[in-house]
Amino acid sequence: MNIFIKGFFTISIVLLAACSGESTSDDTGSTVATNKTTSTTTQAKPLELTIFKSPTCGCCGKWIDHVENNGIETKVRNHQSIAPVKNRFHIPSNYQSCHTSVSEAGYFFEGHIPAKYIQAFLANPPKDAAGLAVPGMPMGSPGMEVGDKFQPYQIFVLKKDGSVEVFADVNTLEEQFNDA
User: Fold this and answer.
1) Which end of the chain is less enclosed by CB atoms within 10 A, N or C?
2) Any bridge partners for residue 28, and if so which?
3) pLDDT digits (tens, 9 = 90+) for 106-140
């Protein structure tokens, strides 16, 4: 009997660990989808972003795939209008894009920022930074792929005092990826 209980307990743990996603509604009525990457190590807690987007935006979905494929866990919150989110984080209109992501530490990431720059920012946040932004939707940025077409763009650090600095210049398609 004791062996049976231990075996049942072990199988239950394995089945619970195999569950990797869930979908619920939050208190604002938005749909929340959680995608978790299972880690075999217990070192640092995986990076997680909450992403606010329109439920019909295809490029946002492609950008989410990009960050998930680069080790970032996501919670997606679909809203008909994400303007209130952008206002809450004081993101100026000339730095806005189609989606806004927020880290557990409260930093925002506006638009099609490559995962490697988000990870670099969070590893060593610049002093007084509120977040990063890629204004608009540059062709060739993650989620905005169109064959091999690419439009160079800048990633900006938006500071809490309203000032802005260049965080990175992305001049080639290859510069966006971790192995470049």
Assistant:
1) N
2) none
3) 999 999 999 999 999 999 999 999 999 999 999 99
